[in-house]
Amino acid sequence: MERGANMVSTGHLLVLCMLLSVALAAITNSFVRENVIEESQVGVHWALIVAGSNGYYNYRHQADICHAYQILHSNGIPDERIVVMMYDDIAYSEENPTQGIIVNHINGSDVYRGVPKDYTQEDVTPENFLKILQGDEDGMKGIGSGKVIKSGPNDDVFVNFADHGAPGIVAFPSGELTASALNDAIQSMHDARKYKKMVFYVEACESGSMFSNLLPTNISVYATTAANGEESSYACYYDDFRDTYLGDVYSVMWMEDSDVADLSKETLTQQYQTVKQKTNTSHVMRFGDESMGTLPLIKFEGDGKSAIAKPLQEQKTVPLDAIPSPDVKLSILSKRWTKAPTEADRHKYHALIKQELKLREYIDTRMRQVVDFATKSTEQADRIMSVRHQLRDHDCYEPVMHHFSTTCFPLHKVEYALRQLYTLVNLCEENIPPSMTIEAIDVACLH
Known about the structure:
By secondary structure, the protein is of the alpha/beta class. Helix content is 44%, strand content 12%. Helix 9 crosses helix 14 (434-446). The chain is globular. Keywords: Hydrolase, Protease, Signal, Thiol protease.
């Protein structure tokens, strides 16, 4: 009896050990699975930074985004996840007295060194921008570096754009990106779960019109802009040595803040409030999901975990010399004329100033003719030329704007023409049919 009892007890122990072993294995497997899922949900950080202009007069836009790259890179986002679009004609321009060097502040550090040249020259287009943003690798094969934003549902994305703008558009060296095309792309990315959170910082005149009444508040996208939808942004830091403006007020304000801030503690809202207070030249705006404002900057201007970036260089306070973006070219020409060393140089710059003023007068005249013909009413034409309606009717405005660009003045080449597009907005908002305005454009610019 005692031997039998021992055998039963031993059998029970074996069964119990087997059950414990199975349970332990199940717990272990569950823990491993949970860790793998948790790790896969951490996500990574991507950035797309774009200068949409070219020419030495526009030095500041490429300087802005080169500085932005240095912030993102030094805060831990690797180059394989930063895509840079810039015409790249400034660093080695014959007008640049410091060949191979770009600065974003008077006596500032070189911000050009190390910047990836992913897409330059004719590759900097609105079509390529949208493909890159949406991760279209096939569409970018054989173009530039081929890098795109390959973000997934757990990844954060930061987009910084600096260039000229107008109601409902931002310019590229060839062509324009419309507000509707940008917001359609954002919605498409949301529907395809191509990001967790996404942030836009946009430097351009009337940049608020790129998001106003278009960007939803419930798709985890947060945007700030240098100006509202009816005003200019401002250039700053005129450099007598380089004979150009080195930066834009909104851009240098957020970047000089990021240079010294603890990005793991400072939030999007805190930076927005700082930049809004310091940018007293235009109305800094924000759109989209404002609840994202509580998130730390490191989630978008860094890899989410790195220590704070060290300043590129101790920046000394210097006058901003802020000036509306549309006046930059005339201001540069005037300053060059003032300090011209010879009579021949003074004559050259005086001729260029007269040429620019004559072009502006010509554009003003053509636009007045468009409005007169489209309205057939002096009273309405006077009102349309003097007020600024908010852009809402994009379906009317965009074909009219494109026709004006292809028929009268290419908007990506003639910056002053951008300043007249508010009249096309007004025509649409006062219910002038687009067919009537297009006919008026043909009369004014073809006949």
